[in-house]
Amino acid sequence: MKSRTAPTVICSLCRRKFGTAQALAQHATDMHKRRAREAKAVPLAPDDEEDSMASLFAVQREAQNAEKAKRLAEALTEGWRQRTPFHFSRVVDGVRLDWWPSTAKAMIDGRMVYGGEKVRRAFERLGIATGAAS
């Protein structure tokens, strides 16, 4: 003989299953109305930019852009072919070099090198000066 199970009622908001309509009503009162109250209780202040993540990211972006501009200004680009304002290339002893001094990256014969100090050392091995910052 098959056992009978209680009819199932499903919450239309969160898709949870309940055995009775009364349990569903209690769930809706407890969970969904409480969540709505909590969402209303915490007002978002769009004018308060000092605490927002957007203002934090803006400060970080300004600092990064200033650092990139400094690296680009200090780079020794004589003898390099300028492909874009930030990308330089040349060939040394049959080895293709691509250099992005603002982001401290280089590609040496198809292999990427990341980081100012690593780029400087790699170029020194090839006899190339990069300036104070790579």
Summarize the structure.
The protein has 134 residues and is of the alpha+beta class.
Which key features would you list for this structure?
21% strand; two-stranded antiparallel sheet; alpha+beta; five-stranded antiparallel sheet; 134 residues
Question: What's the number of helices?
Answer: 3
- Helical residues, percent: 25-40%
Alpha-carbon Rg, integer: 31 Å
User: What is the number of domains?
Assistant: 2
Write out the strand line-up for the largest beta sheet, numbering strands in chain order. Answer: 3-4-5-6-7
End-to-end span in angstroms? Answer: 80 Å
Largest sheet: 5 strands, antiparallel
**What are the secondary-structure elements, in order, as H or E?**
EEHHEEEEEH
The SS-based structural class is alpha+beta
Give the low-confidence spans.
none
Walk me through this protein's architecture.
The protein is of the alpha+beta class. The protein folds into 2 domains: 9-41; 66-134, no CATH class. The protein contains 3 helices and 7 strands; from the N terminus they run ββααβββββα. The chain has helices at 21-41, 53-74, 116-125, and strands at 9-10, 17-18, 81-84, 87-92, 95-100, 105-108, 111-114. The chain has a 5-stranded antiparallel sheet with strand order 3-4-5-6-7. Strands 1-2 form a two-stranded antiparallel sheet. The longest helix has 22 residues, at 53-74. The chain is elongated, with a radius of gyration of 31 Å. The N and C termini lie far apart (80 Å). The mean pLDDT is 82.
